[in-house]
Design goal:
By secondary structure, the protein is α+β, with helices and mostly antiparallel strands. It has 3 domains: 2-180, no CATH class; 186-329, no CATH class; 347-485, no CATH class. 43% of the residues lie in helices and 14% in strands. The protein contains 18 helices and 14 strands. Helix 6 crosses helix 9. The protein is globular. 50% of the residues are buried.
């Protein structure tokens, strides 16, 4: 069914039109009793949409694909991918649909995408549905990442469907409406390559260049320049994850975007006590995607992208491989530079000082040994730079070790103001997220709304919000997250 949307809202079906091989026309399942749970008014306005429209019955139906906006052509996207290292030649959107593209008020072309909208031809054994808790988790964490300045997909709305969904128990169903630069993934290119379709591979690359990395189009070797741009974007992104203690949890190649945006907030979490081996995902039994492994896995995923792109890099296979290897060699340098610059800023120091690197290494050792809360430490360290170290010293069972380190650090004259600008006071603390999701699943959205409001301004401490800045209580215990499928 088609309908007219507000005059400011114009959909296009560019991906569906240009990539029929990757786009299966499909419709979202009808929701028996849709109810808007949360709407991102600011994002709606950025998209040129009238937020009040989405609060009408018609607008809510549009948010879940039960009322098709003019110009939209809903499709389930096909892609391949490595999941926990194992290759699948066909994955695809098993419970998601791309409604189409819109141009926002800044002139950016963005995808509007549904998650949890029902089974598609790619659903395999899944039911294609989603439940309230995981969809609100993605809303909380993606918007918190955006507020911290980390490239990410965004959350426009979560709508309850009125359909019970069976997981371990029966839970209320929901659909997330997601916005992204695009949903092009490493797996999109792997799909074209595994099917031997070089022409499709070339069109995908041209699409990625025009949409995300236009400078590559002016290069002497545009497809190699595209690969270099994706490497740079991912090196920067993963460094930013590491700097705030974010653990993605499911870094499969189908979850690595060409745009450099964070995508798929399934079994994700933020690290509490500093632990390089931190794993929160219930399905990551071997720790493949542990906190400290994320840069290495990003490089591994980019190697899979290189393999897919080889036919475009050079007609001679050996020369194509040589070009790819040379580009891949730049990832570690780019990541290291981004990580070092970010960590130097977290310490309020001058990046040109040779003393910074050993200072960082020694500090991380102290944090790991003392099981110190990562976010609280760096935020409190700003107070130590101002001459009041009591709070940060109290985080260590042996304050003397910290004092020795701090003496070296203070000698470099850290800038406390800089530290406050890059060390968040508020992150999606795991215990607070779970508290908000449990309440929302039971019908109380107030804790969710309060948490989202706090996280929208992560770098400015406000009176009365102390519980949002503190670490998990001692009885929170071992934390595990789930995909929600």
């Amino acid at each position: 069914m088609s309908t007219t949307t507000p005059a400011t809202l114009t959909f296009d079906g560019r991906f569906a039109r240009e990539f029929e091989e990757l786009a299966v026309p499909w419709q979202a399942e009808e929701a028996p009793a849709p109810e808007l749970l949360v709407l991102n008014d600011a994002l709606a306005s950025e998209l040129g949409m009238d937020p009040s429209y989405f609060r009408t019955p018609e607008g809510t139906l549009m948010l879940i694909g039960n009322r098709i906006p003019e110009g939209a052509t809903p499709v389930a996207q096909a892609y391949a991918g490595h999941q926990f290292g194992g290759y699948s030649p066909l994955l695809g959107d098993g419970r998601a649909l791309l409604l189409g593209e819109v141009t926002d008020v800044h002139g950016r072309l963005l995808d509007v995408h549904l998650k949890g909208s029902g089974r598609t031809p790619f659903a395999r054994a899944g039911d294609g549905l989603a439940v309230v808790g995981p969809m609100l988790r993605e809303y909380i964490v993606s918007e918190a990442m955006h507020a911290m300045g980390i490239p990410t997909t965004r959350s426009l709305a979560v709508v309850a469907t009125g359909r019970p969904v069976r997981r371990e128990t029966m839970l209320p169903g929901a659909v997330l409406t997601r916005v992204a630069g695009s949903h092009l993934r490493v797996g999109s290119f792997q799909f074209a390559r595994v099917n031997g379709d070089t022409e499709l591979l070339r069109r995908l690359a041209d699409h990625a260049i025009s949409r995300h990395h236009p400078d590559a189009g002016q290069a002497e070797q545009p497809y190699l320049a595209l690969f270099d741009a994706v490497i740079a974007a991912q090196a920067s992104l993963v460094a930013q994850w590491m700097l705030v203690g974010f653990v993605h949890g499911v870094m499969n190649t189908d979850n690595m975007t060409i745009s450099g945006e964070t995508i798929d907030y399934g079994p994700c979490a933020f690290m509490d006590a500093f632990n390089p081996e931190a794993v929160y995902s219930s399905i990551d039994a071997g720790g493949r995607y542990a906190y400290a492994n994320q840069p290495r896995i990003a490089e591994w995923n980019l190697t899979r992208l290189a393999e897919a792109l080889l036919p475009l890099l050079h007609e001679d296979q050996e020369q194509a491989v040589a070009l790819a290897v040379e580009s891949l060699g730049g990832f570690r340098k780019l990541y290291s530079a981004a990580w070092s610059a970010g960590m130097t800023s977290k310490l309020g120091l001058d990046a040109d000082d040779d003393a910074v690197s050993p200072l960082v290494n020694d500090l991380l050792g102290l944090l790991e040994e003392g099981q110190v809360d990562y976010t609280s430490f760096f935020r409190s360290l700003g107070s130590a730079a101002r001459g009041t170290p009591d709070a940060v010293r109290a985080m260590f069972a042996d304050p003397g070790a910290f004092d020795a380190w701090a003496k070296r650090w203070l000698a470099l004259e850290p800038d406390a103001g800089m530290m406050d600008r890059v060390n968040p006071a508020y992150i999606p603390r795991n215990h607070l997220v779970e508290e908000a999701l449990a309440a929302a699943t039971a019908g109380d959205l107030d804790p969710f709304r309060r948490l989202v409001d706090v996280l929208a301004n992560p770098y400015t401490e406000r009176p009365g919000l102390e519980r949002y800045a503190g670490p998990a209580p001692a009885d929170f215990g071992s934390y595990r997250t789930f995909c929600g499928t």
